[in-house]
Input
Amino acid sequence: MTTLNAIFRPFIQPHRYKIAKGGRGSGKSWAIARLLVEIARRGTYRFLCAREFQASMADSVIQLIADTIQREGYLKEFEIQKAYIRHLATDSLFMFYGIKNNVTKIKSLEGIDIAWVEEAEAVTKESWDILIPTIRKPGSEIWVSFNPKNILDDTYQRFVVNPLDDICLLTVHYTDNPHFPEVLRLEMEECKCKDYDLYLHIWEGEPVADSDLAIIKPLWIAAAVDAHMTLGFDAVGEKRLGFDVADEGEDCNALCFVQGSVVLDLDEWHRGDVIASSNRVNRYAIERGITCIIYDSIGVGAGVKAHLKRIAAINVKGFNAGEAVKDPDALYMPGKTNKDMFANIKAQAWWAVRERFYKTWRCIEAKKQDPKAALLYPTDELISLSTTNIKRLEYLKAELSRPRVDYDNNGHVKVESKKDMKKEAFPHRIWRMRSLWLLRRQIAPWIHGHCWGERLKCHENAMPAIRRKIMPSGNTPWMVTKT
Ligand SMILES: Nc1ncnc2c1ncn2[C@@H]1O[C@H](COP(=O)(O)OP(=O)(O)O)[C@@H](O)[C@H]1O
Ligand SMILES: [Mg+2]
Output
């Protein structure tokens, strides 16, 4: 039998809303699973374990609940099926649904005592508006666990910024988890040392603040997640691959696989020299029928070129972020050429990616207003981040929304991230450090794509301003008492 972390004790008292927010590894999921399993053993309750989207049972917390039952030695008491878990004596029932993909089912659920919404940062306003009225049994409760993403997210606004009545809000961190595992500690320390901002976001649960200065706003990135599914277009067109080879030291290799307007895969790896990594990328490209590899040609990238040219039958192009503006004399907007607008190709390329995100967000917003309306922009001007293969979307979001718009002394757009600025002190290393891997791999697939004709017609900031007693009385031997 394991012990429940004392910080979750307040969840034993009845409240309409019980919210656990905080960074990764703080023990939120384990504690809630444990509490629910214990509750299930003490009476007849119906639990809905929900999340925004559940493609299969593997996405749900069913495994976590089953593991908890096993860990605590309760296997004989429960019937664990593919789609539900039931307590044999109390008849308590755990059900598992995605809100978005089971709207009708969710609306028809009767008699739910506790709904647990896991990874609730992804839950949209529409989904909350469906779920909350469904949990209407007298004394019913809504438990929510989440790692804050963005202060503008509905979940954050609803439970943290404008908290509802009868809410128990816990903020927990890995430092509150006495069982914080070593493997996570290593990951956390690496992140803390390499990228402090990202560490604060992932591990200390600090939301990424939206800023007028963010080149790509978190809101737009959120809109691009699986946008091809929401907006109804496929990954069609040329298959392209961006490749950023690692330098020495802490740098890592990265690749980005794009087809048409859909980012299908992102991958990074630490091991391997330039030759091994180039071979890996070449194999990856062949397996997927990719017809163009765009690599970062600065620094050790030169070695990539020589090797890929030798081995690859695929079209290979270099991207040098240090180069001058592309098509300098072409009009960017009436009365303004590219060279008037941008300080360098880096800013120009970021702007092209920004335009895709911005336009995608506008299309998504328009669809919310009128689901039948035609798309505002052609699909080759949009971007979708497919969640089928992209596993570390949170990193991507945090990274993409970080760089800031800046202007040089002549009023040209330039792009700076906080980290860039720190690095300005070491100009020879600017493009030789790991922290820009994502930036480069994001840009590369578009730099030779269709983006150059696009113009962001509208640069205005379009951001909106920002009881039932569930436990039996008596002692609870499985609780840790606070010392
Ligand atoms: N009560 C506990 N007893 C033992 N280990 C625990 C306990 N709570 C959490 N852990 C460990 O901490 C890890 C992180 O907990 P988890 O609930 O997944 O955190 P979060 O949901 O906040 O990211 C778990 O994988 C487990 O190894
Ligand atoms: Mg969790």
Observations:
- Residues 417-483 have pLDDT under 50 and may be disordered.
- The chain has two domains: 6-202, 218-453.
- The CA atoms of residues 221 and 291 lie 27 Å apart.
